[in-house]
Design a protein that fits this description.
The complex is a heterodimer of chains A (222) and B (410).
Chain A lengths: L1 H6 L1 H54 L6 H28 L5 H26 L5 E7 L6 H21 L3 E7 L5 H10 L6 E4 L3 E3 L5 H7 L3
Parallel strand pairs in A: 1-2
Antiparallel strand pairs in A: 1-3, 3-4
Helix pairs in contact in A: 2-3, 2-4, 3-4
Chain B lengths: L3 H27 L15 E7 L6 H9 L6 E8 L6 H11 L3 E5 L7 H9 L6 E4 L4 E3 L3 H6 L7 E10 L5 H21 L12 E4 H6 L10 H11 L3 E12 L5 H21 L9 H44 L16 H22 L11 H11 L3 H13 L6
Parallel strand pairs in B: 1-2, 1-4, 2-3, 6-8
Antiparallel strand pairs in B: 4-7, 5-8, 6-7
Helix pairs in contact in B: 1-11, 6-12, 9-13, 10-13
Classes of the chains: A alpha+beta (222), B alpha/beta (410).
């Protein structure tokens, strides 16, 4: 009887190995599928945002000679709000994305979109006398520096609070500066800033020390 | 390219999944044989050796339990006093006077370890089989008779029993009770593939020939019961376990003694790994399973703890700094939006593994119902899985440190 106990002993190690491989890879496939569905969702948002951006740029060109500042600023605000909300979804998915790199590519695309928005908002500010403030938040993507991670967490909260308080009177554009976007790098180099995270208000004021909502409101002129 | 931590998590998941699957497959292939005890074809003669050091409170009860064993081949019970400082030896002598089966022995001087007293007692044994029990262990009446049948197979060198906890008064004892039940179940499963890695101290029986061949217990090793088992397996003696042989034992009732006991077990484990390291990946169960299983568990637990400590430490620093900056910026420290409701696949893997191991543990516990005790309550199982097991890597790291420092005392 004891002999019969041991007959199958070697097979079971291989059987367990095969079952583990099947279950493990099934799990990985589910993981890839889950992350892929999240990327697809982000891609859909992105496509819509891209259309919105094109529309806004076209609108900008159309109105070059007969500027309707109200509509232009409203288009900027709507677009900024849209991609700000999408950025929050993207951030959640990024934190959860472990297997695929696609979500990082989406992040770059969004950063490029936000850079466009920043450029457009600079132009808009030049063209129009308006009562909207533009706050650009430049941060480091995927940093390992613990102080920076903590600072960036707090900056996100403070700027989120500021946006909630000011609503349609504020365009908030968070952009990661280290995602290899040449346009962005050139703009940042033009400003001559080296320390991040950094908040730029109306392309005039540069704040790199953690500040309260009240402090920031002091810089908002409108 | 996946980052280092993701690769590490996936590796841990794979290894844990493999061992859980292995145990489940062994269980399904052998579930009808779990409590099987072969009927002995020949009544082999047996002597039991009980080492004793300062166990006046329990030694009498231990002897009494052995005397009430229903195995007729039990010839002698050698109770070896290792120069106790209490009145253990007087109690042993009293039993020796009352029962001719009981032989009172005393070592010339304290050997400093159970192995010393066991080897001393073994010198007096002339029977086919030699059994060992601790001075605070209490076998059930049929424990021995359920073990002897395994020796029908001439290649079986040792048979071990199922040890459960006798006193379950406080939480620590209750958690150890859960642990012992799960250990007994998994050890039995390992028995089906020849992978038993320890013949426990509370009650194990060896073929005297095999015992002599391996020169008895290694007195330099802190876990002589692990060492002798590995020696048996290395020398191609089979080791079996009888789940039907129930032995109750006394376990540490406070954390300090528990920690000390676990340090000894683990330092002994490392000593054994080092002693047999040359057999690593050699043909046979010792080299191909027991050593890698033990070694891998140890490395993974220690490394896992280091990673965990690093992660926790990092999180604490970030939390501290965030709180500091949040106060500075007069913003909320924690918001509902900070909770990520999109779980990662690694988190889902973790949940799956947890449910899988919980199911396995519950399965193990379902095979450990006892007449005289209440069943294990879910709170104990939860506490065991969430807190008790987390203490183990700390024990392993401390043991490794103590091993390197040459710790070698009981």
């Amino acid at each position: 009887m004891v002999e019969s106990f041991l007959k199958s002993k070697k097979h079971v190690f291989w059987e367990a190995f095969l079952v583990t491989i099947v279950v493990f890879f099934l799990g990985l496939l589910i993981g890839f599928a889950l992350e892929s569905s999240r990327v697809d969702e982000i891609e859909n948002y992105y496509s819509e945002s891209e259309i919105s951006l094109m529309d806004m740029l076209a609108f900008n060109n159309l109105l070059d000679n007969q500027i309707n500042c109200g509509d232009l600023i409203k288009a900027n605000i709507d677009f900024a709000d849209k991609i700000y909300l999408e950025a929050q979804v993207l951030e959640d998915y990024e934190d959860s994305g472990k297997l695929s790199e696609s979500i990082k590519i989406s992040h770059r695309k969004y950063d490029l979109l936000r850079t466009f928005l920043w450029i457009n908002s600079i132009k808009s500010l030049e063209k129009c006398q308006n009562n909207v403030d533009v706050v650009v938040y430049l941060y480091e993507y995927d940093t390992q520096d613990l102080t920076k991670i903590a600072e960036q967490k707090v900056w996100s909260k403070v700027l989120g609070d500021l946006k909630s308080e000011r609503g349609d009177k504020l365009i908030l554009i968070p952009i990661a500066i280290n995602t290899d976007i040449i346009t962005l790098e050139t703009m940042v180099a033009d400003f001559g800033v080296l320390k991040f995270p950094l908040v730029i208000i109306n392309n005039n004021d540069f704040i790199d020390d953690i500040s309260s909502v009240e402090d920031l409101e002091g810089y908002l002129v409108k | 390219m996946l980052d280092f931590l993701t690769n590490l998590y996936l590796f841990y998941t794979f290894v844990s999944l493999y061992f859980l699957t292995l145990f489940i497959l062994i269980y399904f292939q052998n579930r009808n044989l779990l409590f099987y005890s072969p009927v002995f074809e020949k009544e082999l003669s047996l002597s039991i050796v009980i080492p004793c050091y300062n166990e006046a409170d329990s030694i009498g009860d231990t002897i009494q339990h052995h005397l009430s064993a229903d195995y007729k081949g039990l010839k002698k019970i050698f109770v070896v006093d290792d120069c106790s400082k209490d009145n253990s030896y007087e109690i042993i002598k009293k039993y020796a006077k009352l029962y001719p089966q009981v032989i009172a022995l005393q070592t010339p001087k304290n050997t400093g370890c159970a192995a010393g007293a066991k080897n001393f007692g073994a010198k007096f044994v002339k029977t086919d089989l030699i059994g060992f029990s601790d001075g605070d262990s209490f076998p059930k009446k049929d424990a021995i008779s359920n073990m002897v049948g395994f020796f029908n197979d001439e290649t079986v060198g040792g048979v071990t029993s199922r040890v459960l906890v006798r006193d379950r008064n406080n939480l620590l004892e209750k958690l150890q009770s859960v642990e012992y039940k799960i250990i007994a179940f998994t050890r039995k499963l390992l028995g089906f593939v020849g992978g038993i890695y320890v013949t426990n101290g509370p009650l194990s029986i060896y073929r005297k020939k095999a015992f002599d061949e391996v020169n008895g217990f290694d007195e330099k090793n802190l876990t002589e019961d692990i060492e002798i088992t590995w020696h048996f397996v290395k020398d191609n003696w089979k080791v079996q376990m009888s789940l039907a042989s129930l032995v109750y034992t006394v376990v540490p009732s406070n954390l300090r003694i528990w920690f000390k006991q676990r340090i000894r077990w683990n330092v002994g484990g490392i000593q054994t790994i080092m002693k047999y390291k040359k057999s690593f990946l050699e043909k046979g169960m010792l080299g191909s399973f027991i050593l890698p299983f033990f070694g891998l568990s140890w490395v993974l637990a220690v490394f896992g703890l280091c990673v965990l400590v690093y992660r926790v430490f990092r999180t604490i620093i970030v939390r501290y700094l965030s709180t500091f900056y949040s106060v500075q910026a007069q913003t909320t420290i924690l918001r509902l939006q900070d909770i990520n409701l999109s779980p990662s696949i690694l988190f889902l893997f973790g949940i799956f593994l947890f449910v899988f191991s919980l199911s396995f543990n519950l399965l193990a516990l379902s095979y450990s119902r006892e007449k005289d005790y209440k069943g294990t309550n879910p709170f104990q199982v939860g506490f065991f899985m969430f807190f008790y097991l987390l203490l183990y890597p700390i024990v392993l790291i401390t043991s490794s440190y103590k091993f390197l420092r040459g710790y070698n005392k009981w």
